[in-house]
Each structure stands twice: as C-alpha cells, then as structure tokens.
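JOB MANIFEST
job_type = single_chain_structure
chain_count = 1
residues = 228
[input]
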Amino acid sequence: MRRAVPNLLTIARVVLAIGFFAIVSVVLWPKPGMDVGVRQFWGNAAVVVFAIAAITDFADGYFARRWKVVSVFGRVMDPFGDKLLVIGAFVLLASPAFLAITPTESGGLAIAVDAEDRVVSTTGVRPWMALVILGRELLVTSIRGVLEGMGIDFSAGWSGKWKMVLQSVAAPTALFVAINPFALESEPWLWIRDVLVWATVLVTAWSAWPYLVRARPVIEGRRAEGDG
C-alpha cells in the first residue's frame, strides 16, 4: 500500500491538471452573454483544483522518500506531472482568455490597453513570461534526461524546489485576481500578483543556472574521454 500511495498522488496530479485546463479553456473562455457570477464560481474552482494538484506534488515526493518507495514510474511521471501542471497553467494565464475587455462608446467591446498602448492582461502574465518558463523547463529536463541516461543521478536541487514553490503560489494567485472583480480593482492585490509573477519568472530563469553548473563538469569530462 505504501508503495502505491506516491504513484496514486502523481496520477491524481495529472488528472487534476487536465481538469484545471478544461475549466480554464472551456468554461472560463469569454463568450457572449457569459454570466459573471458563473465565471467567477468556476474560476475560483479552478484555483482550488490547482492548489490541490500542487499539494500532491509535495506530498508524493515526501511519502516516497519517507517510506523509501521511490519507483521508476514515479521518477518518470512525477516530473511530467509537474511540468504539465505548471507550463500548462502559465500558457493559459497568458492566453486571450484573460485579456481585459472594456465597453466602447458604440456599445460594443474592445480589448483594454494601458497608458502606453499595451494590451492589459488581468492575470499579469505576458506571453514572453510563459515562454521563459517553458524554455527553462525544457532545458533542464533535456539535461537531466541526458545525464540520467549516462547513469548519473541528477535529482532536483534546492533552486528547482524554490522555483516550484513560487510557481505553485503565483499561478493560482494570478488566476484568483483575474477572476474576482474586488481583487482586480484592488491595488494591494494587483501588487501582490505582479510581485509573485515577476519573482516567479526571474527565479525560474535563474534556477536553470545551478543545473548548468552541475552538468558542465560531467559533460566536459565525458567529452574529454571521447577525445582521448
């Protein structure tokens, strides 16, 4: 039973991630005549779903190490579930589903822009931010795949764990602000959202550096052996 618990939590995270994507991309996507109350309800439901999925990430690793039941399935599916949840969340948060809409004088709707004519995102997540997060995850995952294929343990370091913590807090916070009018119109909430989003992007980009430093001696050593 103990061996099964971490793997079940990992599977649950993948299922919850798919549920989160379904709510955001199907239910929350703006539609003519959409009821604001219904959108707010499902938006907050998506926040809860993401939070539960993030908790399973910490729980499965904790139980696997505590009970010494780390499995091949877990080593493959755990990072997959993490990347699926985080990358998918930030891609959706940067999508047109969360562009601010403002009424026009003619009675229609238009995409809101700020004082510098930049499109306003209610989540505070820009497309380039999602690309930075995606690029970092692909880079580190590729390095880990190569080194572990050589038989070298390349487990997540403390920088990666802090990165995951920030991502797990910033994504639901950004969604919560975008969905709830009282938060979207509150300067403190907007400040919290922007600080978390920017901190997440910066820490995510920086967190790749320790992995590159760890990998360099191994890669250079193997290259030297090949040259020899």
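[summary]
The mean pLDDT is 85.
DSSP finds eight helices and two strands in the chain.
exit_status = 0
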